[in-house]
Write a structure and sequence with these properties.
By secondary structure, the protein is mostly helical. It is built from 5 helices and no strands. InterPro entries: SDH (IPR005631), SDH_sf (IPR036714), SdhE_FAD_assembly_factor (IPR050531).
Length: 90
């Protein structure tokens, strides 16, 4: 993690986990493994970056998760890159 304060609000983490449920099974599986591994270690910056990624369509998100594409525009920042790397390695 990046040394930022831990995201300690369990309700916010629960909402994020619910929002991560996707229409594509492949995305669901990646997010399940991600939350199993990292949920309690996420910082506020991580949660913010993850929220931004979850605003993407399932297919655009899948392309990023599988490294078929890299983040562009508003998503091309260090927080998103860090969370995306975490997602790609679970």
């Amino acid at each position: 993690m990046d040394g930022s304060p831990h995201q300690s609000d369990p309700l916010r983490r629960a909402r994020l986990r619910w929002r991560a449920r996707r229409g594509l099974l492949e995305n669901d599986l990646i997010f399940e493994r991600f939350f199993s591994r990292y949920e309690h270690d996420l910082s506020d910056a991580d949660v913010g970056a993850l929220t931004r990624l979850l605003e993407l369509s399932d297919n655009d998100l899948m392309d990023l998760l599988l490294a078929r594409k890299e983040p562009e525009g508003d998503l091309a920042d260090a927080d998103v890159a860090r969370v995306l790397e975490m997602l790609r390695t679970v």
